[in-house]
Amino acid sequence: MSGALQAIVFDFDGVIANSEPLHLRAFQRSFGDLGLALSADEYYSAYLGYDDVGVFAAVARDRGLALSPPQVDALVVRKGEYVQELLRAGEVLFPGAAAFIQQAAAAVPVAIASGAQRHEIEEILDATGLRGFFAVIVAAGETAQGKPFPDPYARAFQLLDAANGGLSKNRCVAIEDSRWGLESARAAGLRCVGVTTSYPASELPAAELVADGLRDLTIPMLDELVENRGPAKAGHYDGMSNAGA
After folding, report:
1. Neighbours of 45 (CB within 10 A)
2. What is the model's pTM?
3. I need a labelling partner for 237 at 20 to 30 A (CA). Which of 136, 177, 200, 204 fits?
């Protein structure tokens, strides 16, 4: 196990996999089947942090459209089918993601807490050879509430602690790309790292450390973060130094 760091919990879309544009296109096709348009600006500003059920429910609410639970379920299935079509296009991992995951898993237990469907996560992990590195995966629909509520990260920590024993939340790091995900991790008691793959650092206020992506993170950086037990400030890592306190 690493020094101060005890575990890492990754978000998936927007952190490991660059599949957010694919999800947007799949949502757009699904809403298009209903005669509704969903712009990229709307999706990224208002709906990115939700799981699939949450996106359909929130957009329907905001558009004054009544959707029954069976209709939402059918839309989730259809959207998943569209995602699979789009994923066949090829490489979806962010640069450096695979290398960092391998380094992280050699140092501490690693997990995923995501609003994506489990089969979507596992298919990408299997295709990229990363499935075996993750001791725990918490996916959409596997907790009572999704992000921005703490349930996904709380569940991931619970499962990691059950498997490893003696973990402390303030020595476990969550890596997220959105304010909703960071709110979830922070509410669950984990230390928070943001990556600017989806939003600029200014829109990740809950992050104690901000980097451009996984390729710019190291295990010693995360050790240093968790050793700081006082109030942490958001900072940006530029590849040269850690600007965070």
Report:
1. 11
2. 0.73
3. 136
In the chain, which residues fall in CATH 1.10.150.240? 20-87
CB distance 191 to 207 below 8 Å: no
Length of the chain: 245
Q: Where in the chain is the domain with CATH 3.40.50.1000?
A: 7-18+92-237
Structure confidence at residue 23 as a pLDDT band (50, 70, 90):
confident
Range list of H helices, the chain: 20-33, 40-42, 52-63, 69-87, 97-107, 118-128, 151-164, 179-187, 219-227
C-alpha span between 6 and 223 (Å, rounded): 9
Question: What fold characterizes domain 7-18+92-237?
Answer: Rossmann fold (3.40.50)
167, 160 contact by CB (below 8 A)? yes
